[in-house]
Amino acid sequence: MSVIVYTESENGKFKKNAFEVASYASEVAKQLGTTATAIAINSEENEILGNYGISKVLHVKDDSLKTFNAKAYAEVVVTAAQKESATTVILSSSTDAKFMAPILAANLKAGYVPNVVAAPDSTQPFVVKRTAFSNKGFAHTEIKTEQKIIGVSNNAFGTIENKVDISIEDLKVDIKEDAFETKSVEIDKVVGKATIADADIVVSAGRGLKGPENWGMIEELADVLGAATACSKPVSDLGWRPHGEHVGQTGKPVASNLYIAIGISGAIQHLAGVSASKTKVVINNDPEAPFFKAADYGIVGDAFEVVPQLIEKLKEFKAQNS
Fold first, then answer.
1. Where are the domains of the chain?
2. Using 50, 70 and 90 to split pLDDT, how confident is the model at 217?
3. Greatest CA span in the chain, whole angstroms?
4. Residue 153 carries which DSSP code?
5. CB 199 within 8 A of CB 260
6. What are the residues facing 246 on neighbouring strands?
7. Which of 77, 154, 194, 215 is the most exposed place for a label (fewest CB within 10 A)?
8. In whole angstroms, how far apart are CA 260 and each of 56, 68, 75, 229, 298?
9. Do the Cβ atoms of 250 and 266 come closer than 8 Å?
10. pLDDT range class, residue 2, cuts 50, 70, 90
């Protein structure tokens, strides 16, 4: 009776969140006195999960699953859970996982708790700590159903190396035809850049940049830091930046180690979407901007003066320490 964890991958490579949920599953398995088994779909590097406490990988190789489909992927997870007699299923807090989780919960008749930030407080009863009120507070939630699904908040538990022997087993799943009634016709995504979901550092800018023609320095700063670029909602609404870069409560949530906000005043919806970031740095010429109250570090100044100097200093630092 192992703990099951769904590990996300893309183009055969595991996403960053796969190692975090694997680490979390390993800890839950330890508390329950059992082992952790991962589900991997069309992955080419399954052995690496053994570095994070996973003792078995159920690998599904199926061309029909090359594109994420919530209903079909849920069938895979259900099949794996039943095969392993698992009562605990671990997911990430990615968009795909949150799309799949309610379907999975219905199929397994399981209680589902998203946004979990720590290992269970206890397993008898089963209580987990999760964020509440747009990350402004915490709730300790008891899951009373026999089957349990936990959605782990990104960058909350962290990746913990715990090398164990691992076995790889192919899993064949007969997916019902109606699972593919909804299909992705086209996927438009940014390539060649760090993604907001996987980046340790995110550099974000708002209307204080005055126009799309000034985004060069934001991209240069992101390039120096190896960061992803992002923007506020008004910027994407104006068409200055693609909607895929819009972060906040109504856009993509950010849980990076470092979030740099440049020329963003800090509307409540934006703050709610980035509050899970560990360190927040704000650059704004308005000392009364709401973002300063939420920031760990703040610079009151003109972005067009501060950012070029920051880039120059970072380049000097990298040159001296390379």
1. 3-180, 201-321
2. very high
3. 60
4. P
5. no
6. 231
7. 215
8. 39, 31, 40, 10, 10
9. no
10. confident
